[in-house]
Amino acid sequence: MLEEVKHVILVLSGKGGVGKSTVSTQLALTLKEKGFKVGLLDIDLCGPSVPYLLNLEDQNIHQGSGHWIPVYLDKEKKLAVMSIGFLLKSRNDAVVWRGPKKTSMIKQFLEDVYWQDLDYLIIDTPPGTSDEHITVMENLRNVPQCSAIIVTTPQQVAIEDVRKEITFCRKTGIPIMGLIENMSGYECPTCSECTNIFSTGGGKSLAEISKIKFLGSIPIDPRIGALAGKGVAAVKELPDCTTSKVFNDLINHL
Ligand code: ADP
């Protein structure tokens, strides 16, 4: 039930492992810290990582009258979460489904979950542009505002895939809010010096060429890796790090 959701943000990436789920969860957690009512929907059916990233792996979905009640991260119910991970018996269970079954699960996530009056629903999508993305797009017609954030790493090979994400958004008519470059250099937690491990600037130049907004560079920061599994916002735990600055700027831009 998306009738009362004001804004949907899809988080897309061309490849897996570039930090899409980290960006999705940190965006949701930052919005919650700023006082917004947020939902986080994980439609990466074959590799759901949101329950782990938010330390909610032991949680289950409850059935309300004709709908599913999402899992809430907090007592105040400011952050509602839904993932196929909550429906699996074990974290190691594999979802081996063909397209139509995936399509129907995603429809249920959008139509049958009691999302209530969210300010933002963040959707963490699988890498690439597959059935899952098309199904989501087809079901977002009634949402007043909908946009996409693209996540990439600086390497050329990841950048090439991002072009396909941009084309997908343009073909389906979803406005691109901008592009985030993750893992851009290594930031030393002690002295904050940044060492460029991979090539640099690929995300920024792709954004310029594609005429989309560049939303910032997040360095490889072991403290960000360590936040995974805790369900805590970087802006709260590490207010002075570069990652927090990127998320603060991003939210000011919304
Ligand atoms: P994806 O959703 O694109 O597959 P994840 O968000 O799951 O990627 O990130 C992959 C791994 O990299 C995770 O272990 C995550 O904690 C780690 N990671 C992501 N971004 C950073 C970063 N900026 N600094 C350090 N570790 C990161």
From TrEMBL:
Binding site for [4Fe-4S] cluster: C188, C191
InterPro entries (UniProt xref): Mrp-like_CS (IPR000808), Mrp/NBP35_ATP-bd (IPR019591), NUBP2/Cfd1_eukaryotes (IPR028600), P-loop_NTPase (IPR027417), YlxH/NBP35 (IPR033756)
Gene3D superfamilies for the chain: P-loop containing nucleotide triphosphate hydrolases
Cofactors required: [4Fe-4S] cluster
Record-listed ATP binding positions: G14, K15, G16, G17, V18, G19, K20, S21
Cofactor binding remark: Binds 4 [4Fe-4S] clusters per heterotetramer. Contains two stable clusters in the N-termini of NUBP1 and two labile, bridging clusters between subunits of the NUBP1-NUBP2 heterotetramer.
GO molecular function, one term: ATP-dependent FeS chaperone activity
Described purpose of this protein according to its UniProt entry: Component of the cytosolic iron-sulfur (Fe/S) protein assembly (CIA) machinery. Required for maturation of extramitochondrial Fe-S proteins. The NUBP1-NUBP2 heterotetramer forms a Fe-S scaffold complex, mediating the de novo assembly of an Fe-S cluster and its transfer to target apoproteins. Negatively regulates cilium formation and structure.
Subunit structure: Heterotetramer of 2 NUBP1 and 2 NUBP2 chains. Interacts with KIFC1. Interacts with NUBP1.
Protein known as: Cytosolic Fe-S cluster assembly factor NUBP2 homolog
Species: Vanessa tameamea (Kamehameha butterfly)
Lineage, broadest ranks: Eukaryota, Metazoa, Ecdysozoa, Arthropoda, Hexapoda
